[in-house]
Amino acid sequence: MEPIKITVWNEFLSEKSPKIAKVYPEGIHGAIRQIFAGNEHYQVRTATLEDPECGLSQELLDQTDVLVWWAHCAHDKIPDEIAKRVQLRVLDGMGFIVLHSAHLCKPFVRLMGTVCRSKWRENDELERIWVIEPGHPIARGLPEYIELPQEETYGERFEVPAPDNLVFISWFSGGEVFRSGCCYYRGLGKIFYFRPGHEEYPTFYREDISQLLKNAVEWAKPSGGPHPTLGHYEALEPVKDKFEGRSDRERKHLDLPGSGGKEQNK
Ligand code: ZN
Questions:
Q1: CATH classification of 4-115+180-220, choosing from 3.40.50.920, 3.20.20.70, 3.40.50.880, 3.90.1640.10?
Q2: Per-residue pLDDT for 197 more than 60?
Q3: Distance 2 CA to ligand 1 centre (A)
Q4: How far is the CA of 198 from the centre of ligand 1 (A)?
């Protein structure tokens, strides 16, 4: 079986502070990479904001089955054109796993169509993540709940569309709840948002979180469905052609004032 090609993308800024570098000396991307490294089932590489084209060239995206994204404070450093490139690649079938504060990254916000804000508080509180869809592939092999002794607190309302599948809900010792494991289908692509993973805590070294992320990659990998035809399309059935004998430009409304002379919806 072909290995799943995973790219772990990290803005890689928080780890420049000594306090965070102590927790993640190889960067958060380095820790996530370790979850998949040395296993022939995966082919994993990392990319960061400081790489050319922010580490998100078309070539790299084309060779990626599942993109894992961690970011916190530099969402605006991704040019819109690169965010759109990621969005289109997801619509074309690339899986997209969005971690923690990456809920505000441009490609995720574009794919959701909402602003994706939430409440938050850094107070070393306990997070209890409940599996609420035990039959979902991302819950495979997990206990009924996972407790992270210290995490950043997030609270509803989380301004995202209702997930297509909600697999996890978190409760925090400060009293908040949060939809912490949200699955979405967008075009041919699958998106999984997972809430934990604040940079101050060793969350990505945990066995249970590693299992969960492996499950998520397995779920999000391209499933090989048919590519839909977009744009102008001839009828499959023998219907009468309303534009018979007229020009192709007329048929496609290319001569309308302001149309730009190019076919739309492509
Ligand atoms: Zn955080």
A1: 3.40.50.880
A2: yes
A3: 35
A4: 4
* pLDDT, tens digit (0-9, with 9 covering 90-100), for 77-118: 999 999 999 999 999 999 999 999 999 999 999 999 999 999
Intervals of CATH 3.40.50.880 along the chain = 4-115+180-220
Nearest to 56 by CA among 2, 128, 97, 107: 107
Whole-model pTM?
0.94
From the CA of 192, how far away is ligand 1's center (Å)?
18
Cα 18 to middle of ligand 1, angstroms: 16
Kindly list the protein residues that place their beta carbon closer than 5 angstroms to ligand 1, a single-atom ion: 101, 152, 198
What tens digit of pLDDT does each residue of 28-48 get?
A: 999 999 999 999 999 999 999
Spatial strand order in the sheet of 145-155 = 42-48, 4-10, 66-70, 95-99, 189-194, 177-186, 165-172, 119-131, 145-155
Give Cα separations from 37 to 68, 104, 241 (angstroms).
14, 28, 57
What's the 101 CA to ligand 1 centre distance in angstroms? 6
Mean local confidence (pLDDT), 123-150: 98
Residue-wise pLDDT tens digits, 41-74:
999 999 999 999 999 999 999 999 999 999 999 9
